[in-house]
Specification:
Order of helices and strands: EEEEHHEEEHEEEHEEHEEE
Radius of gyration: 21 Å
Helix content: 10-25%
Strand order of the largest sheet: 11-12-13-14
Distance between the termini: 14 Å
Shape: elongated
Strand content: 25-35%
Structural class: alpha+beta
Largest sheet: 4 strands, mixed
Number of strands: 15
Length: about 325
């Protein structure tokens, strides 16, 4: 399976799950994932930093993609310039099935206040052809900037002036936080005053990108609920279901920074499909990162150690997607 992402090695060490709680578990061990956006000195190459940019996929999803960018003053503007639909940028993004969301000819001036509000003045922006392109532009710009630890909210100006809405109705009059990505339809049984957001990850059909999906649920999200929702699969037919039909979550919890998931026997069918097995393990880990730093992952099937079909050393994504 060819996935564009930066990975770290993961040593699988299997132990028997003794009961469903109160156990000290060390299995499927991998190195803790660090937030390198908050630690720019940990970038893989001196003078560069890992920077998360937001693009639209060919099939319309918004996705985060990590790219190494030169560490320099005005790195926020440098990041936004990667989103411009120039010939150079397109030649890098298009082979991965990504679209640059900022029209050619647009320029940015960025300032950041002490209260972590970024004011972005946008020049040269013409009317978009569709409402979808307009929304993708706003989402990618705001979400890319809020990946920086010094920015919590973004205020957009256009030719130095504030606007309430863009031509197709996108609201840009307020100071904005990061947008939920690829929200699924809200279930009719989820009341607005009790609805909660949960981020899940699914592969696209090409198995080249992991797509974050925002699912609305009635209960407060926790790791167990997240695993149950992940096993249900995506609602969008353009995304892949990694888990065999009938797979259930018997138990899932995070105990002393160890994520423990005990699946029903159907999960074992992944052994005959290594490409889906890798995707399933990756989506578990990416989804689990919503609930804090992990030191290990323990996969069980009906309370017994799960032996993966893939190699003993597997790749664990630090980022959902990466430029090749």
């Amino acid at each position: 399976m060819c996935l564009s992402k930066r990975c770290v090695s993961c040593l699988l060490v299997f132990v028997l799950l003794l009961g469903t709680c109160g156990c000290s578990l060390i299995a499927n061990v991998f190195s803790p994932v660090k937030d390198e956006l908050e630690q720019p000195d940990t970038a893989a190459t001196a003078g560069y930093r890992n920077t998360v940019l937001y693009f639209q996929t060919d099939d319309g999803f918004m996705v985060p993609v990590m790219k190494l960018l030169p560490w320099e003053e005005g790195i926020g503007r440098v990041a936004l310039n990667q989103l411009i639909d120039s010939e150079e940028n397109r030649s890098v993004a298009a082979p991965m099935g990504l679209k640059n969301t900022v029209p050619k000819g647009v320029s940015f001036v960025l300032s950041i206040s002490d209260d972590s509000v970024a004011t972005l003045n946008i020049s040269g922006l013409e009317e978009f052809e569709t409402a979808e392109a307009e929304r993708a532009f706003v989402c990618s710009v705001v979400n890319t900037l809020t990946e920086f630890p010094t920015i919590d909210r973004v205020k957009l100006l256009f030719e130095g002036k504030a606007r309430k809405r863009l031509s197709h109705g996108t609201n840009v009059g307020n100071t904005m936080r990061a947008f939920p990505l690829n929200p699924e339809p809200i279930p009719v049984d989820s009341q607005s005053d009790s609805a909660n957001q949960l981020t899940l990850y699914f592969p696209n059909h090409a198995a080249s990108l992991y797509i974050p999906v925002t699912r609305i649920i009635a209960s407060k999200p926790d790791f167990s609920i997240a695993m149950e929702e992940l096993v249900k699969g995506p609602e969008d037919i353009e995304l892949l279901q990694c888990f065999p039909e009938g797979t259930r979550v018997i138990f899932a919890s995070i105990i002393d920074d160890v994520a423990v998931v005990n699946f029903s026997s159907e999960f074992s069918k992944l052994a005959v499909s290594p490409e889906f097995e890798e995707s399933a393990l990756d989506t578990i880990l990416l989804t689990a990162k919503n609930f804090g730093m992990l030191s290990a992952l323990n996969i069980q099937v009906e309370g017994k150690d799960y032996q993966p079909a893939i190699n003993e050393t597997i790749s664990v994504p630090v980022y959902a997607n990466e430029f090749r």
